[in-house]
UniProtKB/TrEMBL annotation:
Signal peptide (residue range): none
Organism of provenance: Streptomyces shenzhenensis
Coiled-coil stretches noted in the UniProt entry, renumbered to this chain: none
Function: Iron-sulfur subunit of the cytochrome bc1 complex, an essential component of the respiratory electron transport chain required for ATP synthesis. The bc1 complex catalyzes the oxidation of menaquinol and the reduction of cytochrome c in the respiratory chain. The bc1 complex operates through a Q-cycle mechanism that couples electron transfer to generation of the proton gradient that drives ATP synthesis.
Residue stretches spanning the membrane: 58-79, 99-119
Record localization: Cell membrane
Designated name of the protein: Cytochrome bc1 complex Rieske iron-sulfur subunit
Length: 352
């Protein structure tokens, strides 16, 4: 296409001072500056009533976001987690998940839509060409940045359009509450549950393998037996939670070999019961050395001496294994005489 075929209005201006003027490529500057098209005013720039309508639209979107956030919280509290509804064409879905997704999506969408509409209709849309400058921030650059920031803040009309400002702050303040409410799904507060287990006075010690109550004669010297509280079954809903606190190691040691006085008092004929849960990160302890009466955690090699109060003799565990005081029932079965004196589990003392 020759220059004669180009419309006259698209040809470069002859004088740099004219609107839309461009520079022509030459030997010193081989890349011509295409220039900027003439700025076209929007209706909001020349009609205050149109600007007011845009302001109300933005405020409405921010207000809808706030209402959607309140709806999110209300749905989380009011809708049962097991309720389902039919949504075409998806089918049956969880009513709670559907309501939470719908309200949170609406809250975020309205904030985004309000911000976009605000920028497109009320903020300044004049294009400004700026020369490239060195990366280092000279004093002149810093002053220019500050001036540009102040100019941008002025052109955003945030200070003059108080309705937009207030509703935007309200929407941005309420939306994070959705995340705070979701923290409720982490579960109920532990309260004092970490400090107590199912063991209590009179609870029988049940063999984990045979599911039968243990007699003193069932525990041989040098053997390691695992036990659980009477009444705790594997099909129970809370089995994993409770066994993680109540699992026991049963070991029989010659009474003369027990070094710790309290351990001897809390045992029965040399039979001692200690928590199976390592006090490092909660791994189940299962390795027992008969000659030394040491038990080893297989995860990080924490070693405990069961003949000396189950104190830590090696490894990263922070404190000894809790001991359960035991005795014998009238029927001749081993039974607990109370709960653990100390909470079981890893790093409990750091947690609370």
């Amino acid at each position: 296409m020759s220059s004669q075929d180009i419309p006259e209005e698209n040809l470069p201006a002859e004088h740099a001072g004219q609107p839309g003027a461009v520079s022509v490529a030459d030997e010193k500057d081989p890349f011509a500056d295409p220039g900027l098209p003439p700025h076209e005013h929007r209706i909001q720039d020349i009609d205050e009533q149109a600007a007011k309508r845009s302001e109300r639209t933005v405020a409405l979107l921010f207000t809808l976001s706030m209402l959607a956030t309140v709806g999110f919280i209300a749905a989380f509290v009011a809708i049962p987690h097991d309720r389902s509804i039919f949504v075409f064409p998806i089918g049956h879905v969880s009513a709670l998940n559907f309501a939470l997704g719908l309200t949170l999506g609406a809250a975020l969408f309205c904030i985004g839509a309000g911000a976009v509409h605000w920028a497109r209709t009320l903020m300044s849309d004049a294009e400004i060409a700026d020369e490239r400058h060195p990366i280092e921030a000279s004093p002149e650059v810093r002053e220019k940045v500050h001036a540009d920031f102040k100019q941008g803040a002025k052109e955003s009309v945030l200070g003059r359009r108080k309705l937009i400002r207030n509703t935007m702050f309200g929407a941005l303040t309420l939306v994070p509450l959705s995340g705070v409410v979701l923290l409720r799904d982490l579960g109920p507060l532990p309260e004092s549950k970490l400090r107590h287990t199912l063991w209590k006075n009179g609870t029988l010690l049940v063999n984990m393998n045979t599911n039968e109550p243990l007699r003193p004669s069932d525990v041989a010297v040098g053997s390691l037996t695992f036990a659980k509280p009477e009444g705790l079954e594997e099909h129970d809903e809370e089995f994993q939670t409770e066994i993680a606190k109540a699992a026991l190691m049963i070991v029989r040691i010659q009474p003369d070999n027990i070094k710790d006085r309290r351990e001897l008092e809390w045992s029965h004929e040399g039979i001692v019961a200690y928590s199976k849960i390592c006090t490092h990160v909660g791994c189940p302890i299962s390795l027992y050395e008969q000659q030394t009466h040491h038990v080893l955690c297989p995860c990080h090699q924490s070693t405990f001496d069961l003949s000396d109060g189950a104190r830590v003799i090696f490894g990263p565990a922070g404190h000894a294994l809790p001991q359960l005081r035991i005795g014998v029932s009238d029927e001749g079965y081993l039974q607990a005489l109370g709960d653990f004196a100390e909470p079981v589990g890893p790093a409990f003392w750091e947690r609370g």
